[in-house]
Amino acid sequence: MSKRDELIEKYAADLKDKCGVTPDMDLLTKVVIGCGPSIYNKDASTVSGTDDKELATVKNNFLIKKLGLSDGAALDKGIDGVMEKYGKSNRNKYRAVVYYLLAVHFKKEAVYNK
Q1: What integer best gives the mean pLDDT of the chain?
Q2: How far apart are CA 105 and CA 77, in angstroms?
Q3: How far is CA 30 from its chain centroid?
């Protein structure tokens, strides 16, 4: 099993165990591939739910640039909802899991079906 496959399994377990979500493995795989090499870097592979700068990066680079959403209060509300679902007390919020949850939340799964 490749390192990426191992990480996909770990992210799927996080979605099931911590978020109560049964992941669409095809979509999760595409999200992980979309994250690129950041999934292999300990710092870059996680998102801090309390760091405003980090959350702004998620909003600008993922929601606006990648998913093509318009900036607004709905984006912040969506990020807050995903952080709440993942568990505010959970220190290790994996970037791929956060992106997966955001793509589903905003119904933008089709972005990964190109």
Answers
A1: 95
A2: 11
A3: 11
